[in-house]
Amino acid sequence: METKKGHQHPITYMISEINAIFSEIGYTFAEGPEAETEYYNFDRLNFPINHPARDMQDTFWFKNKDVQEPTVLRTHTSPVQARYMENSEPPIRIIVPGKVFRNEATDATHEAQFYQLEGLCVAKGVHLGHLKGILEHFFSKFFSGKTEIRFRPGFFPFVEPGVEVDMKLLEGESKLAGKWIEVMGAGMVHPNVLSASGIDPMEYSGFAFGMGIDRLGVMKYGVEDIRDYYTGDLRFVNQF
Amino acid sequence: MKIVHSWLKDYLGDNLPAAEKVEELLNTYAFEVEGIEKVEEEEVIDVDILPNRASDCLCHRGIARELATILGVSLVSDPLKESTDLPVTDKIQIRIADHEACPRFTASLISGIEVKDSPEWLQKRLRALGQRPINNIVDATNYVMYAIGQPIHAYDADLFPQEDGKWKIAVRFAEENETVSLLSEGGKDEERIVELDGSELLIVDESTNVPVGLAGVKGGKYAGVHSGTTNIIIEAAHFHPIVTRKTARRLGIVIEASKRFENEPSRKLPPYAQKEIVKLITDIAGGECEGVVDKFVQKKEPLKVIVTVARINSLLGLSLRNDEVRNILLRTGSIITDIKEGVFEIIGPFERTDLNIEEDYIEEVGRIHGLSSIESVEPTFIEVPEINPRQYYGDKVRIALMNIGFTEVITSTFQKKGKLQLKNSLASDKSYLRSSLVNNLNAVLDANYAHVDLLALADVRVFEIGTVFSHEVGKVSEKVVLTLGARTKGNGYNPKDDKVLKEGMASVAEALGKDLDWQIEKGVAELDLSAALKDLPTPIAYIPLLSQVPAAYKTISQYPAIARDVALWVGESENPKSVISTLTRSAGELCVRQTLFDTFTKGGRTSYAFRLVFQAEERTLTDLEINAVMQNIYQTAEEKGWEVR
User: Fold this and answer.
1) CATH no. for residue B412?
2) N or C: fewer beta carbons within 10 Å in chain B?
3) Looking at the structure, do residues B99 and B193 belong to the same domain, yes or no?
4) What is the residue-averaged pLDDT of chain A?
5) B421 and chain A: CB distance < 8 Å anywhere?
6) How confident is the model at residue B428 (pLDDT cuts 50, 70, 90)?
7) What is the pLDDT of residue B190?
8) Closest-approach residue (CA) in chain A for B54
9) Chain B contacts of A161, Cβ < 8 Å?
10) Which of B261, B296, B331 is the last residue of a domain?
């Protein structure tokens, strides 16, 4: 049997695809460490000191003896927002696709490790309408069909106002077409997050959004069990 | 939070819309509704309260207030607007040792009550919430909590010793190794003794120094209300959210009361709760309120926040007029003072402890006005200022490796053994972090060799680009590695694997344009990609996206596949594709793959050898079953005039 071409993992393929869509509109692909300090993972993102996400039940912690300051496996790609903002001047436009970790029981829709996509835009005069426009642009391209976005009230410590984002694919044969689907959380960057990164919230504003790339694959390809992404099983990867 | 639809009518009167409309309004303007269910004739709405609103909306009055804001109406009855006047008693003495941990403690004394079943209307509401009615006193404490969000506890005053004619209640932290006897779950009678470590806040009978309950978490067995109780002390207090949460989590007692304290309801709430419960208990259990005592030390001044219409519009992307903004803020129950044109000073309702900065009010204006009115602004196409080298070179390596048959995998960051162990883990076999991908890829190679027939592969070739961790004293470091693996035979490493591996390493070297330093170990090679990328030229544009059109995704069958080979002599003119489709039809749907692996022609006839792979979605196939399928295939071939070799 001759050697056939190999297959790209759907997660890294989606990351390349996401990057292709966002780099066209000026978004830089940013990255940060997977072992992240509590300071960047929580404090800098305006998580109160007593926030439940900091609990051992939710977050993987490194042993005190192994680290100089409290360190976790990052629970989201959002700390890269803080890291990037403190080293750059607005306008800032970044996406951060990357692996994140949660200490939660696994099932077909939950994994202790998964991939997240973070987006951040900070400039003068940025508002929720810009966020809506960017997301419509992204989903329309990613799902190859005109897509509408809807905001609902939401809450995340690092944004205010916060919104939940639903999308609806308006056209095409896809199973997704014609119905509202909850896809991500987003909002205007909280003034505490901007200030802590040395950006004046009275001069600049920004939006941020975050979603699971694993779930994008569930929607796009019909993957039924997100654990399949991480088994190294070629019966899975070779379907892509 | 479960909300009984008809209960909201107490506050909203005729302005209360039907349950389905309530669902729609909450979904659009406030909270996601999980669903509506019917319990007895009651419609119960399951509302997912956002974390910042758990301080005021984990109760029926809170949801009613929210609906009033959305609808632009007033509440016909609002317990938080009632006077909190009750007579003062000097029969109860309260001493708080730590005012940070307990800023407020109120207690009322009601005498001459009769413990019995609650009236049916009250029982019905509790049942609708999934609560089991116990007796009128306990039910009343729960009812008021579900009504206005303040947890309440009742004690039998006659079982609570007095000293100098006074009940002496103290609030203090536990001592190490002190114990408290708690009421067991669901009001059952057995005792639950809990050992304390000193971090817990206690309610104590000061006359005997016996702990009577874990503050905010669980009432004690001490002085519990029973069927013969006639005089009661009612506690409504405010406990620190972190102290409450830590105790509740550590002891695994997360109940309705602790959930509310954790979310820091307003410190002004306890007197309103006293007023409500005194009214309710004297109504349904008789008796008389002798008085209340209120110890309130750590008061919080109401926050005044300056809000400007220009900033509201600039963050929301709207162009609301001053009067529109003013009107929306009034609907939230806030007090507004005009500072100048388009600038307001706002004091939020006292129960809204979530409203602290201008942006909090901007969110209120946005959602009450309606987020749907925000119009999208199309992005502009601008050049990306920098190209991420890891993404660029990563894609370059991927393309090179895929071209020679390597497939990309992503494996677990967690391992059973290793050098760097986490403080906490999901399972004992996942408590270490990987320091290399070698073990993972070996496991991938072993597991996948079994599927080569099913996947029509000659061998298994895989790679992963991933983060690995290492640690020196007091420091964790991470790097990205690229690891390749090859397996050409079924039983583990074989020297032939290295040949394939060499091919892979050469293609990576070519893609990156430099010599690389690989760690090679029995069919697996690893490269420090972070280091390798350091001196490479800065990329100037991303590689155009490869087109990838996956077939309709199919869930992997976990049942083993069986492979059978069949070789046939057919006429020289016969097309292999039509041969294969004939065989496939005859083989039936269990045949999941057909691969032509050998062809030669001799004496006017062609020999085709096919490998057929059989697999079922939901069971293990037997040889017997496949023998029958093969017989069927042979018969079909013979009918076609083909000779089975």
Assistant:
1) 3.30.930.10
2) C
3) yes
4) 93
5) yes
6) confident
7) 63
8) A155
9) 315-316, 359, 362-363, 366-367
10) B296
Mean pLDDT score, B176-205? 80
Given an 8 Å threshold on Cβ–Cβ distance, is A1 in contact with B366?
no
Query: Could A151 and B407 be called an inter-chain contact, meaning their C-beta atoms sit closer than 8 Å?
Result: no
Among B32, B402, B454, beta carbon nearest to A5: B402
What is the Cα gyration radius of chain A? 18
CATH number at residue B127: 3.50.40.10
Residues B291 and B319 in one domain: no
Mean pLDDT of chain B: 91
In a domain? residue B85: no
The Cα B66–Cα A182 span in angstroms is: 23
Q: Which residues of chain B does A50 touch, with a Cβ-Cβ cutoff of 8 Å? A: 241-242, 245
Q: What is the CATH number of the domain that holds B600?
A: 3.30.70.380
Range of the domain at B585: 562-644
Total number of residues shown for chain A: 240
Could you tell me if residue B241 is inside a domain? yes
- Flag whether B52 is in a domain: yes
Structure-token pair, residue B180:
């408290």
Beta bridge partners of B202: B172, B214
For range B310-339, the mean pLDDT:
96
In this complex, the residue of B378, B406, B414 whose CB is nearest that of residue A112 is B414
Pair (B72, B124) in one structural domain: no
**Using one digit for the tens of pLDDT, what is the confidence trace for B561-587?**
888 888 888 887 788 888 888 888 888
Segment B407-416 shows an average pLDDT of: 95
Contact between A240 and B548 under an 8 Å Cβ cutoff? The reply is yes
CB contact under 8 A, B377 and A132: yes
* Cross-chain Cβ contact B451/A234 below 8 Å: yes
Cα(A160)–Cα(B557) distance, rounded to whole angstroms? 46
Q: Of B53, B80, B107, which residue is a domain's last? A: B80
Q: Is the pLDDT of residue A94 over 80?
A: yes
B26 neighbors B81 (Cβ within 8 angstroms)? no
Q: What is the mean pLDDT of residues A7-33?
A: 96
Instruction: Using alpha carbons, select from B576, B243, B134 the residue that is nearest to residue A49.
Output: B243
**Closest Cα in chain A to B411:** A230
Please judge whether B476 and A113 are an interchain contact, meaning their C-beta atoms are less than 8 angstroms apart. Answer: no
Residue of chain A whose Cα is closest to the Cα of B440:
A232
Same domain membership, residue B117 and residue B67? no
Q: Name the token pair of B399.
A: 């393309």
A112-142: pLDDT as tens digits: 999 999 999 999 999 999 999 999 999 999 9
Q: Record the pTM.
A: 0.89
Whether A129 and B465 lie within 8 Å, measured CB to CB: no
Give chain A positions within 8 Å (CB) of B374.
128-129, 132, 151
Taking Cα atoms as reference points, which of B450, B449, B442 lies closest to residue B483? B442
Does the pLDDT at position B185 exceed 70? no
Nearest CA in chain B to A132: B376
Q: What is the mean pLDDT of residues A164-186?
A: 90
Which residue, among B78, B83, B43, has the nearest Cα to B62 in the 3D structure? Answer: B78
Write out residues 51-110 of B within 8 Å (CB-CB) of A. Answer: 51-53
Size of interface A-B (CB pairs under 8 A): 281
> Are B311 and B279 in a shared domain?
no
Looking up tokens 């409450």, which residue turns up? B244
B454 pLDDT higher than 70 = yes
pLDDT at residue A29 greater than cutoff 90: yes
Task: Please tell me whether residues B508 and B572 are part of one structural domain.
Answer: no
B552, pLDDT greater than 80: no
Residue type (1 letter), A34: E
- Residues of chain A neighbouring B546 (CB-CB closer than 8 A): 8, 13, 16
Q: How close does chain A come to B375, measured CA to CA in Å? A: 5
Taking residues B261-269, report their average pLDDT: 94
Question: Residue B450 to residues A227, B292, B501, B597: CA-CA distances in angstroms?
Answer: 20, 76, 20, 18
Domain count, chain B: 5
CATH number of B75's domain: 3.30.56.10
Does position B553 have pLDDT exceeding 80, yes or no?
no
Please report how many Cα atoms fall inside a 13 Å half-sphere around the Cα of residue A40, on the Cβ side: 22
Please indicate whether, in this complex, the C-beta atoms of A63 and B556 are within 8 angstroms of each other. no
Taking the CA of residue A135 and the nearest CA in chain B, the distance in Å comes to 9
Q: Are residues B162 and B199 in the same domain?
A: yes
* Contact criterion met (CB below 8 Å) for A169 and A137: no
Residue A1 has a pLDDT of 47
Of residues A135 and B558, more confidently modeled: A135
- B114 and B48, same structural domain? no
